[in-house]
Design goal:
This protein folds into 2 domains: about 110 residues, Ubiquitin-like (UB roll), CATH 3.10.20; about 120 residues, no CATH class. The chain is about 30% helix and about 15% strand. The strands form 3 sheets. A 5-stranded mixed beta sheet has the order 2-1-5-3-4, sandwiched between helices. It has a 4-stranded antiparallel beta sheet with strand order 8-9-10-11. The protein has a two-stranded antiparallel ribbon with strand order 6-7. It starts with a strand and ends with a helix.
């Protein structure tokens, strides 16, 4: 099928969302909560676009809106730009220390507003990606707690979570680097806990925590546990060459 974005036709596949097609064709649509490994989050409301024409046009969220034959999409209308600036202004109040938010505000010319007080020292935009990544891994060490302006991401009872494996997936998917991680060759500190690093049995480089390595081996049944991703890829290549003689 084909859809039109800003007056130009682009091929699309059934099951795709508007954001997928736009990014594949290098059409800029800002996002904070979108991650390819955790799609369909749809909470930051920065990827708003306008679809339809005339009186039938409306604003939708590009990361969760499915494509259809002949869909008309506009990413840069005045209404879209105004709502995007408003949402960015609110995100800046929520997370004034988030560099990514400040960059987006500068790029989209979001004016300063002194009517409301920003949350001092905050970087978290409450996108929920970290808690979702933790849930997908099956550990559930962190989640969103409380409601309204005091809502935040935290472990149970805000204590060092015993179920955390120190994998760092939450920090990796965070768009604003709001989750602090301290790491050396020997240890990694996250969520108030210190984990011992596991070292690759082939190259000797630390690649994850010992708990995370055991967890990955257990859920995936890996026979190459103990190898870092690079060495694991090389090992697969060696096996394939041995099988096919390449």
């Amino acid at each position: 099928m084909e859809i039109r974005i800003n007056g130009t036709s682009y091929p699309a596949e059934a099951g795709e969302f508007v954001l997928n097609v736009a990014r594949r064709n290098l059409i800029p649509i800002p996002t904070l909560c979108h991650h390819d490994g955790l799609p369909e989050q749809g909470c930051c409301r920065l990827c708003l676009v306008e679809i339809g024409e005339g009186s039938r046009s409306r604003i939708v969220t590009a990361c969760v809106y499915p494509v259809s034959e002949g869909l008309e999409v506009r990413t840069d209308t005045e209404e879209v730009a105004a709502i995007r600036r408003q949402n960015l202004a609110l995100l800046r109040l929520r997370a004034p220390e988030a560099e990514r938010v400040r960059q987006l505000c500068a790029y989209y010319h979001v004016p300063e507003d002194s009517r409301f007080e920003a949350m001092s020292g905050e970087r978290c935009v409450m996108c929920g990606l970290c808690a979702r990544a933790c849930a997908v891994l099956g550990t559930g060490a962190i989640s969103t707690v409380n409601r309204g302006v005091i809502k935040k991401v935290a472990p149970p009872y805000e204590e060092a979570p015993v179920s955390c494996i120190g994998c760092g997936s939450c920090a990796e998917v965070c768009p604003t680097k709001a989750i602090p991680v301290e790491q050396t060759r020997e240890t990694r500190e996250i969520w108030g806990r210190t984990f011992k690093m596991a070292k690759c049995s082939r190259c000797g480089e630390p690649y994850t925590t010992e708990e995370a390595a055991r967890h990955a081996a257990g859920i995936a049944g890996l026979d190459d546990a103990g190898f870092c991703p690079d060495c694991r890829s090389r090992r697969v290549g060696e096996v394939m060459r041995g099988v096919y003689g390449r």
